[in-house]
Structure to design on (337 residues):
């Protein structure tokens, strides 16, 4: 376990005082008034090595400047029908808060198809939710609960996971790498629910490849995880796919109501979309909002992430052959270069 001492933090602060002014300005959007806590996150991500944590943070700040990340919350995905298509195929939402005030982020891993828009729109949408979480949701929770809140809880729904998920590995690896390099240590715990056999088999080979600090954050729950999750959150904050007592299913519980936290009609997405449009109007009040995706440079995956992606691909293919699915459209051979 890495111990972050005051001396290490002091060294990091000293290095950050020497960076250029543009980097200092974008750093403010990251730390939101809590620079020390932010430095600690990057230190944890680099096992307490000050030089590596500093390089990681500087690289992240340069990435933000080069890709205009500070302005991404003023770049709405339009028209609304396109954004709805993104939401219907990239199943992510916020269902409420834990009893400790941490935002509950729900992810429909198994039923996300990522087939309604270009990869750039999905990357843009993901980063916007990250930035909205960090610049709006977490500061609001900090104020409401009277203590600094900088992390969230993620509940990953594996309902519907199948071999065609191979088609998504390149995109998911890009998203994972962006998070690893630029939003480290933002998730307190990952709860995995509605687990099919294919996930259980893959988890056995992937788990040993994860860093120890990541493994400790992951909890695989039985069925929909309802009873276990109610220990840390109220019923109203449960994602819709966890509200069934048994093996919950987002396929059957996505009923078009406001309870569906993945839907554009859910309060979280309505507030997020309204916020982004409003920021766009404030930035350029006399200029019509242009349609088009917000292109972001995809960082090269680190060797550990690349190894995990390759292992997943190999395991999915093995399962397909084992089950006589070698000619199935779900058994797709893709490149993750």
């Amino acid at each position: 376990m890495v111990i972050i001492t005051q001396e290490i933090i002091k060294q990091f602060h000293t290095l950050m005082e020497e960076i250029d002014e543009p980097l200092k300005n974008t750093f403010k959007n990251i730390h939101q008034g809590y620079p020390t806590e932010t430095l600690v996150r990057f230190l944890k991500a680099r096992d307490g090595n000050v030089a590596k944590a500093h390089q990681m943070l500087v690289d992240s700040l340069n990435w933000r400047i080069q890709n205009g990340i500070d302005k991404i919350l003023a770049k709405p995905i339009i028209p609304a029908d396109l954004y709805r298509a993104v939401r219907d195929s990239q199943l992510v939402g916020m269902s409420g808060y834990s009893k400790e005030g941490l935002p509950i982020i729900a992810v429909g891993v198994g039923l996300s198809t990522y087939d309604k828009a270009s990869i750039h729109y999905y990357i843009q949408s993901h980063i916007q939710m990250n930035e909205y979480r960090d610049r709006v949701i977490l500061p609001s929770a900090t104020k409401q609960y009277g203590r600094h809140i900088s992390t969230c809880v993620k509940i990953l729904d594996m309902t519907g996971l199948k071999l065609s998920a191979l088609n998504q590995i390149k995109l998911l690896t890009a998203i994972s790498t962006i998070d690893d390099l630029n939003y480290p240590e933002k998730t307190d715990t990952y709860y995995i629910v509605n687990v099919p056999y294919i996930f259980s088999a893959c988890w056995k080979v992937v788990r040993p490849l994860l860093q120890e600090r990541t493994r400790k954050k992951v909890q695989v729950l039985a069925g929909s995880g309802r009873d276990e999750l109610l220990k840390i959150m109220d019923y109203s904050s449960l994602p819709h796919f966890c509200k069934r007592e048994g093996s919950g299913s987002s396929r059957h519980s996505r009923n078009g109501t406001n309870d569906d936290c993945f839907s554009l009609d859910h309060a979280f997405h309505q507030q997020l979309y309204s916020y982004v449009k409003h920021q766009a109007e404030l930035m350029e009040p006399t200029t019509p909002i242009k349609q088009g995706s917000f292109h972001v440079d995809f960082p090269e995956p680190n060797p550990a992430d690349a190894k995990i992606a390759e292992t997943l691909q190999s395991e999915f293919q093995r399962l397909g052959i084992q089950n006589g699915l070698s000619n199935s459209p779900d058994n797709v051979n893709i490149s993750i270069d």
